[in-house]
Amino acid sequence: MTSFSATDAALEGFRITRERPRALMAWTAFCFAISVVSALITVNMPAEARAALEFLQNDPSATPDAGMLMQALAILSPMLLFGLVVQCIMGAAVYRIILRPQDDKFSYLRLGRDELRLMALTLVYLVLALMAVVAVQIVVAIIATLASFLGNAAFSFAFAAAELFALGLLVFVAVRMSLAPVMTFDLGRLAILDSWSLTRGQFWRLVAAYVLAICCVFVVAILFLMLFMAVSMIVTIATGGTVAELMRIFQPDETTLRTYLNPFMIAYMVVGGLFTAIYYAVVAAPGAVAYQRLSAQA
């Protein structure tokens, strides 16, 4: 049976960032530029839309004014599209450096057909995921309703068991279909269902690779934050600053771009750009490595 090393797949992102420092620096600069653009969007967001977004975040169960909601969605939709573009550019860059290492123009960063196909695949999968969740919840509701005729205890047990089974089923399908993005990139077409056959018998290896990669990213995030805060604290004390000034990076003044981009925030964005570049590499690489190994053995 074809297979791959879950450990090698999980750690591939660290390998490519170590062996391709120029690409890592280019990705860091790109992520930093995206942070600056995000700051511009945040600072210039209309007050009405900001109020609607804050209202939704503070009380998601409440029904906001229709006008405020529509204005918030009008602002949120371009931001989500912008985020999708960035995600696909970075994801394609990681796929390119693994599957087409010789194609290093612009440090593997592009916005072309490959990225557009990844965007289209994401939108298709979003629709399919919503349909799947709705369908599963309908089935769960039917099972729970039928069980309710046997009493409250039966209803509670059936509902909990059905929800757990549904969650497990959705996770299983998501993992089995997780190679669709890299297959879409490599095959040059929307590979919506192709991942299912390629990942047969590889569920637990894929889960192990993804979980290990996420754990590594979590550890790196903590180390980055600890190192940044330690250095920033030393600089703050040496320059006669206050801890309150340092803590503003977590609650920045969004009045103007000048107040938002204080020295500590700029430094935080630079470090964040480096971490984001590593994050994309580590998260996207396992799928690319798994596909590379499995397709070569197929």
TrEMBL record:
Transmembrane segments: 24-47, 67-98, 118-147, 153-175, 207-240, 260-283
Superkingdom of the organism of origin: Bacteria
Keywords: Membrane, Transmembrane, Transmembrane helix
UniProt-recorded name of the protein: Glycerophosphoryl diester phosphodiesterase membrane domain-containing protein
Species in which this protein is naturally found: Phenylobacterium kunshanense
Organism ancestry: Bacteria, Pseudomonadati, Pseudomonadota, Alphaproteobacteria, Caulobacterales
